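Retry 2 of 3 after timeout on previous attempt. Resubmitting structure tokens to design endpoint.
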């Protein structure tokens, strides 16, 4: 744990809200208000043997599920720490107001009919927030929470019993998906599972902030449809990162249809996949693609020691299994180094004559279950230059008389012994999802082995766990200041109509922040006619200049490779006529004259877009005519560092053009990064007015980069 003194001012929960959140998760007194859902929840609570006080409120019934009822909230004898409120939407607001007045701690609100139904529920949602005060309110439109630490659960259906209360804390915007997650058969250890619903009061940022200091929490798993406050979410994730608590995400709404479903479900702003991915990469959030992968990722983060790298040794008794392992590990970015000569010499005498020592290693069917020989073989392989070991063996399905066998147990003992002897993490992966029985999983966990279901997902989560370990080592070296810089800019809402800034003024502004631009001049038609011939002998570019003409090419407002005054004047006259036909309201009075630039190695587009959720987004991509053709672009959230820009450039499909493609000279990458940073600097200095800007193309050559076109769109600052 690094526990840097991260600057999270404005991101931490208010002290009273924090206290009430802790009361919600460690209740001594609980209250239940409502009917049918309350009865189901109380039945579950009794089964889990909650040790504290339980009070039930119902105006007409004298008992529910064996618990005595009182008719009113005011009749609850002591302030409850945790409340389940399962009444209709309007009654929920009235009850929240009463609960706040008696100093209740936290409330789980089951009712729907708030922000998820749009404007019709917006006023009700505002009243809900006001009535909540500083209570830790979960929901509305949520299913409840499962508490494996204190057993003060609020969950209307049965859920599995776990032997330990230490593990992943899950916050999910879907109650049904929370149910799937808690009821899985993958042996994921949990501490808490919270169905967050609409997040009217507590958002992801609050849950993260409230859970990172809990010693029972190994990692944070977020099933999300959207994020309500990106800067606050970022600060919370970076707080978790500073404490080496992994944040793991599974997100719905990645397709257009999924985004629409998410918006109608919990009023989330979903979609924008590339922006979400940029945010998660920036924060070190571990993103998963499926719910099974999400579960496996939480498992490995809860049970595995950090990995020192991506080098893995894989063993099985099957050439086919090893072939799949080699493929999936390679696809995931893991490395399988070949055994050394010394390792081969130590293992070969233990194999049949046809055996071969490699990585992946086929220990042959003849050694199936041979603990005496497998232990030294696996220990030798794991003692080498690798970071972890994986055994690939499946179990028979549930109901089969061969679900477990002495041979399976012997192979796991050999793997566990190798892990203990070398001090390195070890994993048992099945090829099939569900290829390890729950009983076998628990036995492995007790021995220090992490069971992983499905070979493809096993490779993916091991690779992402290794990347997390590398990130933690880098954070330890760089310190908290490096994390502070990762919080995206918060941008104010803009008022007023956007306006475009002509190319000359756009370039002038960007040049003031360090962006190289051509040596151009703004001239009238009369001034063009007075140009000395020798001043325009070299090839020149002439462009129409007007604030209301952002797209000059479509209007015939660009002429290239002009030589001499006569060609320039003729082009200016054609331009004036063409612009007049294209936009009769524009009177063209000025032109931008610039020297033509040498043919570049590549053309890039660098832009900044203002997003109401993500703030300022810098986009770097292939420019010129390739913009729409190959759609090769990488988004970065501002502020941004030089290393992020260089990594984005190297990730472009067109990067080989900058890197000496087919014997051509390489670009001056430092100059390209300088140019992009200048654009980012301008955006950072104009958060209160900039709507968007585009530099297209940024021409990149062996000795530098130059912006040959630029456009700024802004809202004027008030005087």
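Retry 2 succeeded. Sequence:
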């Amino acid at each position: 744990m690094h526990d840097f003194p991260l600057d999270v001012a404005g991101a931490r929960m208010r002290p009273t809200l924090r206290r009430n959140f802790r009361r919600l998760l460690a209740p001594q007194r609980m209250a239940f208000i409502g009917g049918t859902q309350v009865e189901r929840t109380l039945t579950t609570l009794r089964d889990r043997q909650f040790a504290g006080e339980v009070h039930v409120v119902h105006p007409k019934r004298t008992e529910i599920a064996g618990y005595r009822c009182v008719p009113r909230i005011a009749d609850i004898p002591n302030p409850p720490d945790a409340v389940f409120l399962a009444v209709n939407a309007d009654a929920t607001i009235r009850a929240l107001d009463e609960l706040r007045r008696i100093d209740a701690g936290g409330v789980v609100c089951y009712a729907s009919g708030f922000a998820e139904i749009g404007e019709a529920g917006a006023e009700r949602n505002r009243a809900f927030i006001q009535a909540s005060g500083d209570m830790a309110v979960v929901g509305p439109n949520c299913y409840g929470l499962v508490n494996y630490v204190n057993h003060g659960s609020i969950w209307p259906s049965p859920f599995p019993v776990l032997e330990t209360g230490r593990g992943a804390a899950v916050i999910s915007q879907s109650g049904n998906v929370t149910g799937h997650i808690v009821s899985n058969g993958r042996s994921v250890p949990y501490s808490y599972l919270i169905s967050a619903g609409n997040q009217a009061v507590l958002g992801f940022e609050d849950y993260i902030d409230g859970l990172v200091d809990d010693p029972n929490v190994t990692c944070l798993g977020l099933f999300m449809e959207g994020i309500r406050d990106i800067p606050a979410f970022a600060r919370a994730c970076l707080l978790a990162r500073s404490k080496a608590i992994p944040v793991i995400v599974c997100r719905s709404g990645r397709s257009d249809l999924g985004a629409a479903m998410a918006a109608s479900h919990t009023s989330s702003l979903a979609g924008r996949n590339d922006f979400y991915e940029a945010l998660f990469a920036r924060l070190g959030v571990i993103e998963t693609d499926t719910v099974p992968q999400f579960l496996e990722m939480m498992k490995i983060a809860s049970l595995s020691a950090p990995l020192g790298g991506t080098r893995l040794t894989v063993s099985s008794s099957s050439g086919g299994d090893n072939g799949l392992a080699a493929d999936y590990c390679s696809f995931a970015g893991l490395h399988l180094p070949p055994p050394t000569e010394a390792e081969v010499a130590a293992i070969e005498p233990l194999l049949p004559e046809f055996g071969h020592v490699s990585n992946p290693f086929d220990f042959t069917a003849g050694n199936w279950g041979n603990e005496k020989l497998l232990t030294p073989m696996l220990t030798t392989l794991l003692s080498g230059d690798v970071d972890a070991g994986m055994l690939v063996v499946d179990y028979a399905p549930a109901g089969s008389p061969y679900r477990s066998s002495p041979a399976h147990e012997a192979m796991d003992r050999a793997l566990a012994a190798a892990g203990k002897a070398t001090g390195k993490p070890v994993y048992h992966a099945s090829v099939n999802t569900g290829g390890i029985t729950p009983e076998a999983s628990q036995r492995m966990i007790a021995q220090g082995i992490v069971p992983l279901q499905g070979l493809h997902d096993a490779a993916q989560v091991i690779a992402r766990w290794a990347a997390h370990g590398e990130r933690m080592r880098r954070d330890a070296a760089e310190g908290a200041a490096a994390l502070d810089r990762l919080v995206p800019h918060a941008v104010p809402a803009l008022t007023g109509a956007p306006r475009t800034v002509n190319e000359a003024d756009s370039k002038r502004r960007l040049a003031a922040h360090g962006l190289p631009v051509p040596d151009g001049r703004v001239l009238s038609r009369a001034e063009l006619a007075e140009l000395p011939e020798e001043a325009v002998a070299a090839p020149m570019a002439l462009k129409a200049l007007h604030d209301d003409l952002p797209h000059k090419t479509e209007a015939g407002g660009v002429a290239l490779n002009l030589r001499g005054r006569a060609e320039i004047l003729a082009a200016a006259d054609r331009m004036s006529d063409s612009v007049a036909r294209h936009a009769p309201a524009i009177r063209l009075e000025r032109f931008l004259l610039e020297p033509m630039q040498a043919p570049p190695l590549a053309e890039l587009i660098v832009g900044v877009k203002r997003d109401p959720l993500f703030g300022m987004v810098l986009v770097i991509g292939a420019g010129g005519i390739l913009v729409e053709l190959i759609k090769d672009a990488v988004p970065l959230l501002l502020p941004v560092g030089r290393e992020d820009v260089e990594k984005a450039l190297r990730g472009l499909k067109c990067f080989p053009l900058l890197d000496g493609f087919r014997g051509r000279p390489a670009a001056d990458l430092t100059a390209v990064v300088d140019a992009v940073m200048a654009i980012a600097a301008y955006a950072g200095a104009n958060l209160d007015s900039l709507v968007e800007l585009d530099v297209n193309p940024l021409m990149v050559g062996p000795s530098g980069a130059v912006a040959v076109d630029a456009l700024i769109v802004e809202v004027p600052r008030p005087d």
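Attempt log closed. The two ends are 50 Å apart (CA to CA).
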